[in-house]
Amino acid sequence: MKTIILSFLLLNSLATQAQITISGKTVEKNGDPIPGVNIYIENTYDGASSDTLGNFSFTTSETGKQMLIATFIGYKAWQKEIIVESNIKESIILEESINTLDAVTITAGSFAAADESHASIMKPLDIYTTASANGDIMAAMRTMPGTQAATDDGRLLVRGGDAYETRTYIDGLAASKPYYSKTPDVATRGRFAPSLFSGVMFNSGGYSAEYGQALSSVLILNSNDLATIDATGISLMTIGGEMSKTKRWINSSLSLSGGYTNLGIYDKVFNSYIDWIKPVKSVNGTAVYRHKTKSNGMLKGYINADWGDLAYNVPNGQPEGLMKISNKGGTIYSNFSFRDCFSEKSCYKIGIASTFQDNTISLGKDKIDTQELNTEVRFSVVHDVSEAVKITWGANETFNNYNQKYAENLGNTYKTDLNDHLIGEFIETEIKFSKKFAIRSGIRSEYSSIINKWNVAPRFALALKTGKIGQVSGAMGLYHQTPQSDYLKLNTNLNFEKAFHYILSYQWGEVSTRLFRAEAYYKTYNDLITYQYGEYGLPSNMQNNGSGYAGGLDIFWRDQESIRGFDYWITYSYLDTKRKYKNYPKQATPHFISDHNFSVVGKYWLSQISTQIGFAFTAASGRPFNDPNSNNFMNGKTKAYSDLSLNLSHVFYIGDQYSVLYCSINNVLGNDNVLGYRPSGIADAQGSYALIPVKRDLKRMIFIGLFLSFQ
């Protein structure tokens, strides 16, 4: 019995001796305690959490070399090898993690953040419910700061830049024809449906080295991944109809859709400013395929095809009084991409996109047949070197084939056949020195075979947090663009057009709640294309002799939190710009520029009746125009522009699927906005030219749509 008791006491003593205490305190670099830190020995259940004063204590029976680990959200993991022989007291100093939700992000010139979760300033629902947009991505983006109202054009005109200076990308691949064909005096609209995309990212300047061939801005559209459910959709609208079918499998989905548009009813019901011979008619079809691989890679395929036809008369001052303008043609756009990862720290993306357009436009007795093929192959790699350093690099090759036949009424015929290979490569490094300071530097280089020239474009951006939700950002960089095919068909001995951007911005808040943003910028232009009109009205003496500048201030405020169910944003842009390009005899403000642009968009959800009401108000100062009866170039000015649009969306259910009854009215007040003037073709007996006002085709437009969904 004595032996048993002695043995028990000995074992109890050994067990007591084996229970070693590990204690200490968790603090920040400045000595402030950190409560809630998880401290433990690796591969064991031995550990504890720090208390409100940062203190911790636990016991362990482990001995010898062990790894002590401390983790807490927002801080870098801490670890230290210890030798467990006796009680240990450890002071643990945690460093803040750089990649946290409130870490600094580089946003100069863009509403994009460094990660996808913050990247979108507009969701598809924002576009569909913006009263003035009528479901058009480009029209919705014109309520963003830095853009022009441009209701007579329909394309994005950003910070003094012409329409060709903005580039559109879908899943990182170029969409070379993002708009339907543009004809004089008639606004166009975007080619792609908002429902295809998970978000829209608008960069009004200072964008990264990954993208090129845009002097002013880029619009980045990120498409959806797998469809969530099987669905059937039917849309009945006052302008036509659409049908869609979506099928979802375990790891893939397929969506098919088609639509028909006919604006003939508007020509009969409303008093259109345009003298239509054949109102717009078009058909389109879309196929979208998605497949998720076993390695969580994502394959995306998208094909869109459309065909349209229109014709109308415009006054031209000629003896016959009218000139017929017609436009018909088709476009096929395809986009295939695949993304996956080599490892946890390295991911890649490859893709190919192609646009083919066959278009015929007639201006009176002149006829222009154009066929254009643009194909881009691109790959990029993102490598997280460490928590603080990320390197992105890649390359692209773009092939452009341009064929045109121009037959003028004098019997002369001109044919053009151009081929260009554009090779581009880039590398960009983003370094976060802390949660409060980050820089991004990159360089892009391109070679164009048609002009046989290289360019090199350095770019730099930085961001500094000034508070929990405030930061200052800056960016600068050089941007190039190959001359347009309409110029190259006449002269290939040209150089890249150039622009240099300087941007400084302050941002406060979050996109999802409240966001304030003020951004000042200055942009210089060099080597713009200039020419004079020569024989038969064709450009001659084409050179890179143009230059210019654009500077201004953009302000944006969005609030989705102050009033329950109410979302609104306010934008104001001031712009001072002049340029010498095209046939301008001197630097002047282009005809599409308003010095002041202001817009307010609001949406309020009435939950009791499942209805959202919305409004959009846009105002802009007058735009310059050239009066040939004056000796001063571009000295005319239109009156100020204003437009108030209203919409209503009523949601109801058919089974488990929601459907929408939608109605919108543009220019509710019926303002007779004059957007510009163009001179008649010939002078009168006194040598004066009549000025023909340019207006929207419809003073007031009413749109009604019934969008039905079935499972």
Structure write-up:
The protein is mainly beta and 711 residues long. It folds into two domains: 77 residues, Immunoglobulin-like (Sandwich), CATH 2.60.40.1120; 595 residues, Maltoporin, Chain A (Beta Barrel). Helices cover 5% and strands 56% of the residues. The protein has five helices and 37 strands. The strands form six sheets. The chain has a 22-stranded antiparallel barrel. A four-stranded antiparallel sheet has the order 3-2-5-6, with no helix packed on it. A hairpin with a 6-residue loop joins β5 and β6. The chain is globular. The N terminus is likely disordered.
> Strand portion, in percent?
over 45%
Amount of helix: under 10%
In the CATH hierarchy, the architecture of the largest domain is Beta Barrel
Number of helices: 5
Given helix and strand content, the structural type is: mainly beta
The Rg value, from CA coordinates, equals: 31 Å
Please outline the major beta sheet: 22 strands, antiparallel, barrel
How many strands? 37
CATH level 1 name of the largest domain: Mainly Beta
Low-confidence regions? 1-17, 111-120
Describe the protein's topology.
Blueprint: H1 2-18, E1 20-27, E2 38-41, E3 47-49, E4 55-60, E5 64-71, E6 78-84, E7 88-93, H2 124-128, H3 137-141, E8 166-170, E9 173-174, E10 197-203, E11 217-223, E12 231-237, E13 240-248, E14 252-262, H4 264-269, E15 275-292, E16 298-315, E17 322-341, E18 346-363, E19 366-384, E20 389-407, E21 413-432, E22 437-448, E23 453-465, E24 470-481, H5 485-488, E25 497-509, E26 514-533, E27 539-559, E28 566-580, E29 596-606, E30 611-620, E31 624-625, E32 636-637, E33 641-654, E34 657-666, E35 676-679, E36 691-694, E37 701-710
Parallel strand pairs: 1-7, 8-11
Antiparallel strand pairs: 1-4, 2-3, 2-5, 5-6, 8-9, 10-11, 12-13, 12-37, 13-14, 14-15, 15-16, 16-17, 17-18, 18-19, 19-20, 20-21, 21-22, 22-23, 23-24, 24-25, 25-26, 26-27, 27-28, 28-29, 29-30, 30-33, 31-32, 33-34, 34-37, 35-36
